[in-house]
Specification:
The chain has 171 residues and is an alpha+beta fold. It is built from three helices and six strands, in the order ααββαββββ. Helix 1 runs antiparallel to helix 2.
Length: 171
């Protein structure tokens, strides 16, 4: 049976689209795992602390973290951000910090991805508890040797911006 060039082209296009879709599924699954590791590694109960080894393993060596509110923009290297949080947690006697993702919108193309990750965290100190929601914008890159890594996280929360848009909440 002889296959025409046109038929061969159609088959190749179909297979390339199928391969692209499968790679997108794999990439999205891997990105989901990195984000899950992020939230798991920064959360801790009384007597615990963030998992710094895991944080290091999921961040690019030059990763940045930023906080944007109505009065200022603060940018840190990921290591500077960890150190500032550790100092603030010790100063304010924080005994527990639990952060989780409550919704996500992920865009992937090639070796770059952007995740709009709606989060909620509960922070506790003796006798006090506070829950805050916000949106992390997480930029990831696919390192050829190490897979998906977080390159930047920039966030805003409901302490400055009270209403989370519905697009960032679960429907």
């Amino acid at each position: 049976m002889k296959i025409s060039h046109f038929s061969l082209l159609i088959i190749m296009l179909f297979l390339s689209k199928l391969t692209f879709a499968q790679n997108q599924d794999v990439d999205r699954k891997e990105i989901d795992e990195v984000i899950s590791d992020l939230y798991e590694s920064i959360s801790f109960d009384k007597g615990g602390a963030p998992d710094l080894d895991k944080l290091t393993s999921i961040h690019h060596a030059e990763a940045m973290v930023g906080a944007v509110d109505t009065s200022k923009v603060r940018m840190f290297t990921e290591k500077e951000f960890r150190a500032a949080n550790k100092k603030a947690f010790e100063k304010n006697n924080i005994i527990s910090f639990q952060e989780k993702e409550i919704n996500a919108i992920t865009h992937v193309y090639g070796g770059v991805a952007m995740r709009f990750s709606t989060y909620e965290f509960t922070i506790k100190r003796e006798g006090k508890e506070r829950t805050i929601r916000g949106v992390n914008t997480i930029q990831l890159i696919k390192d050829p040797k190490n897979g998906w890594l977080i390159y930047s996280v920039i966030f805003s929360d409901n302490r400055s911006y009270p209403d989370l848009p519905l697009i960032y909440l679960k429907e």
